[in-house]
Amino acid sequence: MAASLSCRGVKLSIALARVGTSICVNSGTRTLHVTAICCKNRAARIRVGKGDRPLTYEQALHPHHIGHRKGWLSQHTGNLQGEGGASDRTVEDMFVRRFIFGTFHNCLANEVVIKRRGNMLVVCALMLQKLPPQKLYFLIGYTETLLSHFYKCPVKMEVQTLADKAVYKYL
Amino acid sequence: MHNHHFQDPTAPHYMFQDDPYLTPRTSAEFKLYSLSQESGRMAANHIVNKNPKFFQKDFAEPHIPCLMPETMELCIEEVSEAALLERIMLRKVKAAVDMYDQLLQAGTTVSPDASNDLLDLICLYGDRDPVQDDKPEAEDVAQEVQEEGRRRKGRLRRASDLVRIVWRENNNAERIFNLLPERDTRAYSALIRGMVKYGAHVKAFNTYTDMLNNRLTADVHTFNALISAAPEVRERYTEKWDLIVDLLNQMNEQKVKPNLLTFNALLKALRRCGSLARAQSLHTLSEMKAMGIAPSLASFDHVLGIFYKAASPSQGQTDILQEVMTEVAGRTFVAQDPDDVNFFSSAMRICLDTKDIEAAYKVHDLLRVGENWRMLGDSFQQSIYYGRMFNLLCMMEHIDVVLKWYKELIPSLYYPNPQGMRDLLQALDTDNRLDMIPQIWKDIRRMGHDNKSDLVDELLSLMARDKHSPEIQESFAVCALDVKSLYEQGQGARMALEWTATAMTNITSVLLAAQKKQQAWDMLKLFKTKNRVPSEELMEEFLASIKSSNDPQHAMELVQISASFCLPSTPKLAERVLQAFELSEEQKTILSELEVSTEVSE
């Protein structure tokens, strides 16, 4: 869809239009061309910056690399042909992620991976060694029981610890 | 050798996360982590039960009752029998008693079932509210409990041992019992069993006589309780046994069939009947067989306890252990009696006392049959069992076998205490495998026993005692330097070990033997600063090593140091240095002075 505006030479254009030709003589006209907006994709992407921001592998690779260089953070069968409940699983996942993020405050080294095996929900988390082990065990027992009661299914946590976040590159 | 279906010797216990930071390395850490995980679970349960409205949505197909919130609070407030039953179900003893009193005051009759339920509740909990996990104890209750706890002496293993509830005079159970319109067998049974449980044994027998006078027959549970109380109410062994026989006869008359717990109570009572116990216990076992009741592990435990009294090790030779082990070999047991869990640790204690390694292997094999590993008990019982077994192995078996078991058991099943590590060092010494010491030292450090000075001293003296090949001496020297660093500064919040003269001597000899002259020299200087006196043998060793490197300056210093400690061997040392080394005139004069001065002073 193009619209053209001209400041001068209106009469000339109208005269030409009556003749039936579509010759546009650009003698001193200025036009403004506007198209539909096509924005840059910003989903899950951290843009290049000064070079002092550390990124993990998960953060550094963009979503179109999922399936090629990245794995999935949430594994369930809801998206298979003929299976239902994908939206319910997604909502549960979001709740679980926020719950873990809040409960293990400042301790997560990377995104939480959620796997569903049969009836069981397995939450695999990578933690930093900020809390002493007994506090970590307290929170693990608490999370497992609370989420089990909430979702009426067994919830297990598999935790691995790191000393610092694993930096993949700096952007 | 040890293929439990759940046990992998390199992995932590299944309740822990599989991560090196989160794996417990000592028994204290094991307890701490497992308890903190448990308290996290209890905190979550508390929150779930306090806010049930968020957890009501039930989309589990089929319904899972244990994941729904529990009602812990009382709902029914008005005075009625339903309220009474609710309080009984929620185990609120005081509230139930109050409700009952209110019902009686209001004049309503309470059904006999409800009153019996109430009596059962009071007798089970000894007229106290059971300790709720999420509520702190009320002030007055805690005070009373503390007083009774202080009165109890002896080894208090668990917190529950501290809380000893005693059957008080004129408590609610007796009061309500007297208020009952008709007292049936069930009521008497509850009262008698409560009395026996909480230590009022004489009263229990009086109540039983009461019951007989009212022409009621007791049930099997009452008889079990009375048999277990019988040793408490009579003094002499023969009297105790007569009372028990009397009870058994009455049981027969009242046509009450005994069950497994009866026989177990019988055997347990026999343990306190002295010399006539042995014959009677065998009779009891044959009775059990005749009645077709299979003995449980508790029965065998009591039999072993009767035949092997801990205080008198060789009172009449007996091989009852072998007979018991042949009897139980290959059988699976389930928990039928609370005393079942004592079997394995007592059997292992007997093997240890009689130094019978074959029997110990048989006992251990029994653990591997079916689900018998459940009968080992809690982690404390397990540590006792494995501790005794490891002790026996270190004493009796060749070092290769010991090391194989060491890899299997430690640390996945058992965290040895310092005594256990000393046994291991002893075994290494006996079989001449002292080259393993640096590895064992690493394990000792990991287990947190490196602050036990006698263990460290023994380790050092074993290293310093004999001459070994150069590679071994090298590894010993590295180990000795590691030990030295422990003495110098503590790890984290722990205090450094105190230097002892023997420890310093041993470390120095090890360093000398590995030709680490500079570090050995530093150690010698350390003697002065820490105010410890080196031994004469050490000086000899130093002299020998200095001779081999032909260093007159050091030789001089050695003699001077020896003089400063006023060692009696100084003049001899000075003489030998004068003869053996090429010295300057100045040095010669100093040495001859030392030679003379110490002679003069003697």
Automatic annotation (TrEMBL), chain A:
GO cellular component, one term: ribosome
Keyword Mitochondrion in record: yes
Key words of the record: Mitochondrion, Ribonucleoprotein, Ribosomal protein, Transit peptide
One Pfam short name: MRP-S24
GO biological process, one term: translation
Cell compartments where the protein resides: Mitochondrion
InterPro entries in alphabetical order: Ribosomal_uS3m
Similarity-based family: Belongs to the universal ribosomal protein uS3 family.
Protein name, as recorded: Mitochondrial ribosomal protein S24
From TrEMBL, chain B:
GO molecular function: ribosomal small subunit binding; rRNA binding
Keywords: Mitochondrion, Repeat, Ribonucleoprotein, Ribosomal protein, RNA-binding, rRNA-binding, Transit peptide, Translation regulation
GO biological process, one term: mitochondrial translation
PPR repeats: 259-295
Principal location class: mitochondrion
One GO CC annotation: ribonucleoprotein complex
Top-rank taxon: Eukaryota
Subcellular location: Mitochondrion
InterPro entries: PPR_rpt, PTCD3, Rib_mS39_PPR, TPR-like_helical_dom_sf
Family: Belongs to the mitochondrion-specific ribosomal protein mS39 family.
PANTHER family for this protein: PENTATRICOPEPTIDE REPEAT DOMAIN-CONTAINING PROTEIN 3, SMALL RIBOSOMAL SUBUNIT PROTEIN MS39
Protein name per Swiss-Prot or TrEMBL: Small ribosomal subunit protein mS39
Organism: Oncorhynchus mykiss (Rainbow trout)
